[in-house]
Amino acid sequence: MKAFSAHDFKRLLAKASDAIGIPAPECRRVDGQSNFSDDVFRIEVCGPEKSHLSVIDVPGIFRTTEEGITTEEDKLLVKNMVRRYIENPRTIILAVVAANVDIATTEILDMAAEVDPSGQRTLGILTKPDLVDKGAEQDIIDLVRGRKKKLKLGYCVVRNRGKKERNLTSAERNRLESGFFQADPWSSLDRSRLGISALSPRLRDLLSRITRHEFPAVVREIAERIAVCEEELRDLGPTRQTPEQQRRYLLGIASKFQEITTFAVEAQYGRHQF
């Protein structure tokens, strides 16, 4: 598939949701159905100018359940799923937190600190700054400036599309975000911490650094896996793909059997290593 519309993607997502047993987008779950699944919906985008990386979007962690929507099992499933992914030392943790909620109640930052105590791969992403109450912006500014809940890699603030802005193009969305951060009090922050245009190069540099750090370990792991595969191939014996190779293999078995039988008949039991 070279390209598909939003309608095509929604239809494809509905089919995938049905296959893994969760409600389709904008549909409520039925009795006995969960809103979450351990199965992965994977989208692969290929091209000569595409980057070689994987972006994993996991569900947000929630503390309380909502009757008819989420259950205690859902809460545990999501938490275990998130932990499974962020434990990988080669994973960049983008801890996405809504700016209009109390960050002290946000569990993802605590989980990230447990698996990445040095903070070398955890970057905070603050979203929905346009929904912050007037007068409460200073709390977000203090976070970005490292005055509280400090992260080694710090925080970036982004303003994404709202419900009424879903049909905006990427260029329109970027212009809207840029204009938002040019107004007070956001204009007082370091520009390298504001918007997608600042987040992209920061992520690129972080990915490059982690790749360089982990590359020797990746090489060793590949070599170990190759050695295991080669050992398994040796255990399978010579290649037997063609009829000629298969005849040669069977002939070898027959010859060994004849040799063993001859030694047995002559009572020369020590002549062959069984």
Question: What's this, in brief?
Answer:
45% of the residues lie in helices and 5% in strands.
**H/I helix tally:** 7
Helix/strand order: HHEHEHEHHH
- Overall helicity: 40-55%
Main structural class: mainly alpha
DSSP, total strands: 3
Trace the largest sheet across and list its strands: 1-2-3
Question: Unreliable stretches, pLDDT < 50, 5 or more residues?
Answer: none
- Termini distance? 56 Å
Beta-strand percentage range: 5-15%
Give the rounded overall mean pLDDT: 86
Biggest sheet: strands, sense, closure? 3 strands, parallel
Overall outline: elongated
Radius of gyration: 29 Å
Task: Itemize the secondary structure elements and their pairings.
Elements: H1 6-20, H2 72-86, E1 93-98, H3 107-115, E2 122-127, H4 137-144, E3 155-157, H5 170-181, H6 196-236, H7 243-265
Parallel strand pairs: 1-2, 2-3
Structure notes:
Strand 1 (93-98), helix 3 and strand 2 (122-127) form a beta-alpha-beta unit. The protein has helices spanning 6-20, 72-86, 107-115, 137-144, 170-181, 196-236, 243-265; strands at 93-98, 122-127, 155-157. The chain has 274 residues and is mainly alpha-helical. It starts with 5 loop residues before the first helix and ends in a 9-residue tail after the last helix. The mean pLDDT is 86. It has a three-stranded parallel beta sheet, with helices on both faces.
